[in-house]
Amino acid sequence: MAAPIGGMKVVFSTKVAVCSITALCINNELILAGEGSSLNSYGLTTGTPLDSLKVLKAANIYGIKPGKRFLCVYGQKCIGIVESACADVNSRWRKVGSDYEFEDWILDVCWLNDQECCGELAVALAHNVVLHWDCLSETILTRVYCEENCILYSAKLVGHCWTDLVVAAGTVYNEVLLWNTRVTGGERKNSVMHRLTGHKGVIFDIDVSVATSRLCSVSDDRSIRVYTYTGALSRLHDARFHLLGVFYGHRARVWRARLLRHHLVSVGEDAACVVWDYGGRAVQRYEGHRGRCVWSLAINAAETVIVTGGGDACIRRWIVDDAAPSRVKFLSLPPQTEHSDSTAGLETADSDGVTNVRCDIANHTWLNDKFFLRDARKEAAAEEDTEAGREATAVTGRTTAAEKDTEAGREPTAEAGRTPGTEKDTEAGREATAETGRTAVAEEDTEAGRTVAAQSGKEAAPESRRKSRRVDFPRNVALCDARGVLVMMDSGVLYSHDTASATWRVLLRGRNNFGGYSVMASRHHLVLLGDIAGNICLQSAIDADVDVADASAHAGKVLGLTWAGDDTFLSTGPEGDLALWRVCDAGTSLSMRTLRRYVLPRCSQRWVTAGVVQGRLLVCGDRGGTVHAYRVSEPSGVSTVAEDTSECTDWRQPVQSFARVHGKAGVTDVLRSGSDLVLTAGRDGQYRQWKIDGSSRLKLMYSNRGCKGLDWIEKIILAKDDLWICGFHSSNLVVWSTTLACRLLQVPCGGGHRAWDIRFHGNVATFAYIKSGCVCFGESQLRTDFVVKPSLHGREINSLCHLYTLSHRMNDDKMAAGSSQSVSIIATASEDTTINIAAVCSDATSGTRVQVLYRLQNHISNVRTLAVSRPCCPLVASEGGRVMFSGGGRAQMLAWRVTANAGNAASAAPSGDESAMVGLGEVTDTAALCQYMLLGDISLSEKRKANYKPWKEATPSVNPETRFMSLSAGQLCRNGTNNHDHDVIVRHFIGAACSDGLVRLFGFNEEDRGFQLLGYSNFYGCCVLRVTHLRVFERLLLVTSATDGCIAFWDVEKVVVNFMEERCERDDEGTDSTKMFPKQMEAPMFCITSAHQSGVNSICLSSLPDDKLLVASGGDDNSLRLTVLQTARRDAGVTMEIICTHVEASAHAAQITGIKVLPGDVIVTVSIDQRLTVWKFKILDNVAQLKWTSSTFINIADIAEMEAWQTLDGDWLLGLCGVGLQVLQTHNL
Questions:
Q1: What whole-number distance in Å separates Cα of residue 977 and Cα of residue 1054?
Q2: CA 510, 512, 515 angle in degrees (round to 5)?
Q3: 1222 domain-assigned
Q4: I need a surface site. Which of 10, 59, 397, 461 has the fewest CB within 10 A?
């Protein structure tokens, strides 16, 4: 007889759960949220987390109903009663009694006789039944049925008196049934009073407003139906319902709706919150939740604040009518609108030479709440044309510039609004940009045209006369300081406009070299101007007494000007001539000098559009999308270039160039971030972070996309705890917050092909742009919505891996000074194509939380699996780095390096620049715990060339739908042979289980960041689900499982050794080792056939004494199988033999998706039945025994994977992922 299994009982408790927000309520300036089975409270005005209480034992919360004394919290079939510990709004909650479980799903609850605090409730169940329940005595007083006994999807109870209670029930038959609970004649089955039809789908929610006599219902058909009724609902048989309207505006199913006095608010599957008026018009649309669904909705009593909770575990607060549409006014141009040297129409200049002109308000017209301009002077000038001018036009067949002036024709530079046109300008330099597709025909009048006019017998107008009659127009615009607008006219006159006093003044005049062509760049109170002759002018935009600085910069026209710092700027001339300048502002005078000159590599559009000086490097981007790095010198002229410059013999050339890293549309912004980091942005819709290493070389850390649809990024702004992206979406100027994941500002300016500028002053944005030949100026209040609880992922989480466990010094006032806590750094991969690097940390105020540090967005499809391997490069190993591999759809696999910042982790909160470097999530004292870098990627379904011949390829063909189902990575510590220690040696191996039935083995080297396919096998004829690895007798073994229930063991040591030796031989022969054909691996060395009836979803291996190996597996057949193998050496290989097995046929009620073997002979399994089960096992006399210990309810659904790790205190943590994330803890292992 087998000995019983003893030992201490192991129980796991929830440490933190990140779940869908399924219930929301606003009560006494508190936001109450149902997250899983816990009730969490937050401050309404601050969003600060205040308290968390686990209310329901084995159910998720779907509704919260506040009463005068108690809170009723319900979900699924259970109800829990909660009361406040004291009257203070920041008080903690406490539970009253235990859960009460009903026989059916609870749809709605309302308090009865609440003014007397009697504790009676009405409970609506899913089969059209209403219960009268006393929560204090936990007894059902009355049960009332509806005569139509059908399944309900929603219900709404109206009233507080049992005898007058009205039930609005939404059925699966697309109807809303209205009946009451009044019992007459002892009959408890009441009839339906009213039946509202019209929906073409099931009813998901119903709301009734007694104050406005309205009822609304939302449905699967994406519509909202609003009804009005006459009479009192208490006399339901006398009420009459009339359809007010059917609202369509959601792009998917509608989940919730709430009736307000003047508006209706709805949320749905499209992750949008829409505010409607009762005419059916969508007044506002709030978008910011990641993923697909907004599940819950709450509105305060004043109807000014909307709170939404989504499937991304995010809670957002929206302010109704916040950030109204921007009011844009078209500035009236000064009276001088023609190219003429006369000063007619201008006021007399002051003694300082500055001319002050007041705006002509009579020329402004208000239309549709926007300030539009009707400039009579300009219209009159455009219509004035002499007889000779018209005759010349008739002969030459050309149209004057004034007659062809349209919205696009007079907009300057299309590239960024701040750079010149293409290099194909004519001799006069008047050719328009390629984007507008226009040519300033009036400006390229040639001698041939004048000859034709003479031959026709008609004298053409003199050139001076035509020039004096040509209408002037704004060529460029920029902002200075808070409310100043700089306008450069085509005539070469620079105006400054004070928007506060509505006055103009002339800053620069009389310089004919700026007429017809100019480039401009402003920063703070300084403005730079470049002309067609290669001259640069530095001007103060606020003080006309400051002397103007001039310099001859280039042999030809100035193609680009951009600031590279507060006192440095870059200028670009013909033939790639690039100059770095230093500006000196002495107060009464300005000066500038050249620091260095460089040469841009050849490209079609050869000028710099953005740049910054960071340390010893000048990092800049050109119009061709390339990022360059040049070495710079100190202001004293002493070079800081390293002595070893063999890699770049000509210091004028870039030391590094990343060709078209931002596509072919150009780099638009380069920004300094921290002490050694640089951010770049471009018109490819991405922004990238670069790091400058100790050898003053750029390394690409990551690339991220701002938001969907924002393919034209122009600026990146480091705000407090946020990173703002400014760009163009269609014809709108958009400011996007990466932290809030929503638009802060949207201006319909017409698109990016125009001159424009934007500045931010706190929460106010001022902007200016040119449209239809006029200067437009506006300012707008940015949205003040905030995130109460940040999001994790927008879709299901497929994989979870542990990276670090760090000791983090706390700065909490409630904890002892200098105390530290254990912080776990984890990575999660999701169906939303992103990978999150997050920290699981605790503090005395908000408890344990999961804080997202970075979002990795380089996958093009869903991310299915993650695997971690320690780096073997000595430098990275000393830094404590981890190499992480991610794989998923489209057969794509990426390699990342995640490095812990041990010094920053124990320090105080980071400074401004360092915190702004993160820019991807909530920046706190934990944001500097780690950094990451993209090392490399590989895709098995890469695009082939047109002449690709598949029959000549040695590797098997790859289906483009192939997915990496599972990865397992480890370290290969092998030295080179035959004196090839300096060669590239594979330092990490990756075993891959693929959906096309192949098992693949890859190698990866951190030094060259390259993947190599070492071997593959088509042993399985079905999808391979899992792969893991272990070392037995110093031999590397892969263990795989598939949908056929077979578990296979592969000895891949020979494959790796043969690959390395063959590579060295090929290098000796001088052949390219990167084009080696992969080897087909041998058959598995051992198989456990029919381990499960179907797919094996999880495998865990554990070494036992006497060279035994425990294989624990869980599958789709709901069973848990233990297999004990005896291993032994034989020749140069390993042999295995099954000693005993044990099968727990019904370990779970659904398929097992995660299994771990922990110390103390403990096995933990988890299933999609939302149960975590702890088992004890024992191997005695070659007999395996298994005993159930405990089970714990898991809040998240569709559990995909489980990860286990140990804290610094010795406790074990379990991380579960699925539709959310849950971390559990045990202390007695």
A1: 16
A2: 115
A3: no
A4: 397
d(CA 1051, CA 1087): 12
- 726 and 586 within one domain: yes
Residue 338: DSSP 8-state:
B
Q: Say how far apart CA 470 and CA 337 lie, in whole Å.
A: 9
- How far apart CA 588 and CA 462 sit, in angstroms, is 43
Structural domain for 388, as ranges: 329-551+558-785
- The answer to whether the beta carbons of residues 1173 and 1190 sit under 8 Å apart is yes
Number of domains present in the structure of the chain: 3
**Final residue before a domain boundary, out of 1051, 1068, 1090:** 1090
Cα(683)–Cα(714) distance, integer angstroms: 7
DSSP 655-683: SEEETTTT-SS-EEEEEEETTTEEEEEET
What are the DSSP calls for 144-182, one per residue? EEESS---EEEEEEE-SSGGG-EEEEEETTS-EEEEE--
CA separation for the pair 389, 447 (Å, rounded): 16
1020 token code pair: 């399985």
Structure tokens at 1217: 């992922």
Distance between CA atoms of 848 and 14, rounded to whole angstroms?
10
DSSP 19-77: --EEEEEEETTEEEEEETTEEEEEETTT--EEEEEE--SSS---EEEE-SSEEEEEETT
Residue type, 607: W
pLDDT single digits (tens) 932-980: 899 999 988 755 444 545 544 555 555 668 899 999 999 876 655 444 4
**Same domain, residue pair 502 and 637:** yes
CA 661 distance to own-chain centroid: 20
SS3 442: helix
Structural domain contains residue 804: yes
pLDDT digits (tens, 9 = 90+) for 736-763: 988 888 888 989 998 888 999 999 988 8
In a domain, 315, yes or no: no
CA distance 1038 to 1055: 12
Query: How confident is the model at residue 297, as a pLDDT?
Result: 96
Look at strands 30-35 and 535-540 and give their pairing: unpaired
120 - beta bridge partners? Answer: 112, 134
Tokens of 654: 């870039």
Q: Are β-strands 364-367 and 370-373 bridged in parallel, bridged antiparallel, or unpaired?
A: antiparallel
For residue 945, give the DSSP letter: P
Q: 1050 and 927, same structural domain?
A: no
Residue 986 · residue 973 · CB < 8 Å: no
Q: Among candidates 1029, 1167, 1009, 1017, which has minimal Cα distance to 1081?
A: 1017
Q: In the listed set 905, 939, 973, which residue is the last one of a domain according to the structure?
A: 939
Q: Per residue in 1081-1119, pLDDT tens? A: 889 999 999 999 999 999 999 999 999 999 999 999 999
In angstroms, the CA 1048 to CA 970 distance is 19
Using CB atoms within 10 Å of the CB of residue 72, give its burial: 0 to 12 exposed, 13 to 18 middle, 19+ buried. buried
- The answer to whether the CB of 490 falls within 8 A of the CB of 516 is yes
Measured CA to CA, the distance from residue 675 to residue 252 in angstroms comes to 46
Do 880 and 910 share a domain, yes or no?
Answer: yes
Residue range 725-731: mean pLDDT, rounded: 92
Answer yes or no: do 973 and 880 share one domain. Answer: no
Q: Are strands 686-692 and 120-125 parallel, antiparallel or unpaired?
A: unpaired
Q: What token pair was written down for 136?
A: 């204090």
Mean pLDDT of all residues in 830-855: 86
Do 855 and 720 share a structural domain?
A: no
- Parallel/antiparallel/unpaired status of strands 139-146 and 189-190: parallel
Q: What spatial distance separates the first Cα and last Cα of the chain, rounded to whole Å?
A: 28
Cβ count within 10 A of residue 933: 18
1123 contacts 1115 by C-beta, under 8 angstroms: no
Q: Contact at 8 Å (CB) between 533 and 547?
A: no
* Residue 1210: pLDDT band with limits 50, 70, 90: confident
Residue 224 lies inside a defined structural domain of this protein = no
